[in-house]
Please model this.
Amino acid sequence: MYFLTGWPRRLLCPLRSEEEPFYIQPSSQRFYFALLSETQLSIWFSRPSVLIVSYIESAKAATQFGFYQKAEWKPDDSMVAVATAKGYILLFDVLGGGDEKYLYEPVYPKGSPRVKVTPGYKEEQCAPALSLEMKKPVDLEAPITSLQSLQEDLLVCTADGYLHVLHWDGLGSNGRKAICLTTIPFSLDLQSARGGPSLDLEGVYIHCMEYCVTLDGFAVVLSDGRLGFITPLSNTITTDLQGVWAADVNDGTCVAVNNKYRLMAFGCASGSVLVYMIDTTTGSMQLSHKLELTPKHYPDIYNKTGPVKLICWSPDYSVAMVTWECGGLSLWSVFGAQLICTLGEDFAYRSDGTKKDPLKISSMCWGAEGYHLWVLPNKQDRRRREEQQDVDMGSPPQPSLQAGILQFHFIKSALTVNPCTSNQEQVLLHGEDRLYLTCGDPTQIHSTSDAHPHTHMHPHDGSPLHQPPNPDSPLSQGLSTLLGHKHWHVVQIHSTYLESNWPIRFAAIDTAGQCMAVAGRRGFAHYSLYTRKWKLFGNITQEQNMTVTGGLAWWKDFVVVACYNFTDQQEQLRLYQRSANLDNAFASVTKLHSDTLLLNVFRDMIILFRADCSICLYSIERRNDRPNPSASVELLQEVSMSRYIPHPALVVSVTLTSVRTETGITLKAPQQACMAESIMLNLAGQLIMLQRDRSGPQVREKETPAINKKFLPFCPPVVLAQCVENVWTTCRSNKKKRHLLEALWLSCGEAGMKVWLPLFPRDHRKPHSFLSRRIMLPFHINIYPLAVLFEDALVLGATNETVLYDGMQGSSEPLESLFPYCTVERTSQIYLHHILRQLLVRNLGEQALMLAQSCASLPYFPHVMELMVHVVLEEEATSREPIPDPLLPTVAKFITEFPLFLQTIVHCARKTEYALWNYLFAAVGNPKDLFEECLMAQDLDTAASYLIILQNMEVPAVSRQHATLLFNTALEQGKWDLCRHMIRFLKAIGSGEMETPPPTPSTQEPSSTGGFEFFRNRSISLSQSADSITTGKFNLQKTFSMPTGASAKGRDVECAENMYIDMMLWRHARHLLEQVRLRDLGCFSAQLGFELIGWLCRERNRVARVEDFVSALKRLHKDFLWPFPVIPVGSLSSPLKNGRCRTVLSPRLLKSQSADSLLNSDMDTAPPPTAPPNHTWMDGLGQRAKDMDTASSAHSNQHSPQTHDAFLSLLTNKVEEYSIGSATDLTETSSVVDGDWMMVDENSSTLSLSQAELEHISMELANKGPHKSQVQLRYLLHVFMEAGCLEWCVVIGLILRDANVIKQVINFLNSPEVPPETVQSIQNGLLAVITWASTDCLGYKPFLNLIQPQLQQLMESTSEQAQPEAFQPTSQSTKLGGSEGPGGAVAPRAEDGRGGTTPLGLALPSLEPAVFSRPPAEDCPPEQTEEKGEEEGAYDCTLS
Model:
């Protein structure tokens, strides 16, 4: 409602004085403030905040009367009464200084339009010159305890038990009357007044008193601490008084009454404020609620505040400010929601944690419209600080200039005085000179920029998740604009309007959140966000001739104003069009018969509440017949409410809604869902509903002509709820979200919120007769609600944030720097889980399901589900008493209806402490079963979360078994991140846990969270290596025993664990190779650091064989998006075969190859395009071990005999280095992440080529796959070559159509170490390929012809059947070219050589090409990697 902003302002008194003000009293309009010090009365003006006049008592009079104590204004501001210590009342006349006398005047530049036009216009903006004259004093002969002003009378309470009634004007014979308190009968209620128990009031007097207009009586605090209410039984105030008192309270200190809500707030010595209401039937005092600090939020101060010193209701009665004897301020809404308290957080502590002394207050009051709180700090408090300051400065104390008045600034919600904005979804706050809006720019509303991280925009039209239900209904603003950021859109109110019409009293915003209107003392002005401009009245006389009385509202593009016209002296309803000039000529004016108090708009209807307690309904219609569009207004219906409303000022808000209880008749016509069905009145916090009476004969709308259409009467009112501060409904409709849009939302102060929810029969079934149509559900939220987003299930609000400022540290802090700088931030809160839970508690699961399904598309729906489980779990699992009917099983069953059930449960468990898991899983099911469900649903990430839970709830064997399952599935699906985490997880399990399940922790056991901590560190923090944890602090835990240090047993366990993981990796690699998934094998090796060459060496004669060359070739073409070769049409003999060959080219393949026009041009060292390409990939390897860029993109050449020798020389000379030196350089330019195989770099460089060369190159390109695939294939070729898997080398050589590779392999086959099976297999395979090419893919024929001599050589050599001989390892390493050739030496190194510091199967960095884009190894630092590189390269291998 109200929010503190900025720092307090300090007002200095210009007069030097030893006395300090200690009492402040505002005039009725709060434009003037009377300040008292011991012998001085000062009058201050509100804007500008300046001293106008000061009256100083002479020393002689001061000794006669005593010091000043209290002051009170006459209601018309013409007199001030001052009570003195010796029982005198001094009356002062406040005299205006005539027309032309001003203390301060604004000075305008020449030519300014603001000049004096209307009489009295200038007074409004200047501080008037006033003078004070003292009249004859009145001696009451007893100390005065309280002053209270009535219309013509001044009531004075004295310490001798009398109540004096003085007449303001004359003090003649009838001017004074005294009533003794003992003559007033007090009872517990008015019914038992005649004969019931009465208070003994001997020696008791009234300590504090305040008059309540709407209750017509006085709230009093008696000197013995009792609380009472005195009411006159007849019309005159002085006769026949009767009192009621509140039982069981005797520590009252002060009182303040709320006229709008008929509440009496009594401060108590205990520090709490008791708010009472009068029961209308019995007349007794009933406790409504308490305002008190809770130990939960203020543990160190809640019982140390001292007695309540002052309570001040704001001018609109929506909030109360409370201060205590020990200092501090706290702000509460009318029904007890706490908004601000300065006894905690940044208000109470400095940034270094030291406590500040709370500000002690001697007096305070609200300024005009509640924008300021004027505070007088305590005398001793201030003096002590200043003396300390003087001591610090070493200067003698001097008369201080600082008569410190502190002015706190507030901004407030527009709902406080103009509750017509309650059917909209914006938050509008206004300060004294600016407006704060939550809506975004009009340009952003329809843009696709996603301001809010969780808002999924619709891909096509940029609108948020929910579409507007139909075009003519007001559009619900997108989540992104309403929640996009924390900042407000601040609009400065036009200074010209402000200076003559301050303070702003009403503000309103339209449904789209783009137009604002404000009304001050006279006239009004409006602003548009589209144009960023204010519109003011062009004719200032028109502005000054009207004052807004009943509020402002927007209807489409019209401002609706209920105002009083001074020239005609009558109430009017006016509509001004937004785009026209602001002038009465363009207004449509309707005369009203009575003063309007409230105004609201519903669809095309206006509802007015008038001072005679009647409600009027008007229809509005837009007229476009004139040059300027206008609106015509027609009276539809008048409803008199005087029987039900005791005083018109009690009506807080009036709203038309389409909400109904459907008691009389079930509505069949769908259009009736949006009609104005009922009137909601907030009568002093009671929500009253008047429905249309449909019990009479129903007339069909078609039969009646529109003219004599009679509106249905209203039924008698029904009370829906108590303690209501605000009401929200919407006039939109949406069939999918009927629950939310047809509900009524109430804000109820400390009781939180309530929703009056409609209940619908499912699937149009006949409703149960016993089921009511609506249900009122209460729920608590942590913010103060200011708007409700109906479809989005969100409440919007605002909250005070503080920023500490330590610039003025030390004792010389001025008072205002004791306060942090205050800002107001936007907040929002989800409420759906509260409602679902309430429905489940009431066994309305079917309704809850319908409601949840309608909201399932909201981006935060998973969060709603988690919250619901979490809240219920925390409550039930930590309850000390057994719960007879637990809700958790019901909630669990409810969540299973939604696909996100599994992740909801696991997320909730991960955020809950370990001690509650058993309770949770007892309700939702065994985590093992849930884990298996995740695996079946292919939801591996959720399964991984369940694994962490299993690890803590089961023995290690079980978690290892499940981890293995998950690891294998993740490998199969290529979820590499998850695989890396699983490797680390499996190591962590094996790193020394005992094979015993962790004991089930009880909630009281201190060590229960120890296990939780352990699991959290060990498994969730995935960036840590598993091994670094073993040496951590966990040897202190009782739950798990962990070996520390590298004991022999630990090393064995680790070896076994590494072997276990390796076995799984080998199995997966074998599986991939069997299925000819080379691309997946490459990714697998690069991503998980799998030592592919070493493994292939071992598997060379087992799984690394090629059974069917043709199918392997086809599979590679498919996996690497490599087109089957085509040959020019001219060189084909059969058109049929040509056709057959052409069909192989899918559009996707064509696309990928056409995009690859950069093969020769994208590397820095590419050969000149005009020269025939003569560098092969292997050739590049030999010449430049470090810079491999050429190799990756050069074409293979069929006519270069020297290539073969280069390759052999490389292998003989460079055994020490890895022959693929920097395989990462291989693809430096192609850093496309694994998976984006279609993404190829584009290059626009154009080549100047001859026609023949162009044809040749285009043919080459047509037969080549994407550049990235080429690099990958070359890399795999190299790996297979190193490992001696010659069959695969042949297959890859074929697909790359690289004759050198085939030559090389066939030359190898002559060496004795190659097994004859391999030679035979290659021969058969090549024959099969030749057969297949001649029938199915003629594109391969030219290449096969090219390698004919080698094939011939192969046939001859196999016929000879050379016997293999023994050979030395050195020759083997020469021929095979593998620094780790095949052999048994690889296996032991895999386990031992690494010393257990790095994860198993991590390849050297030089073997991780960016092609398969492996992320940097998390588990090993770079130094280790380098050492390992040298170490592994140095191995000598023997062939088994």
Observations:
- The longest strand covers residues 630-640.
- The two ends are 85 Å apart (CA to CA).
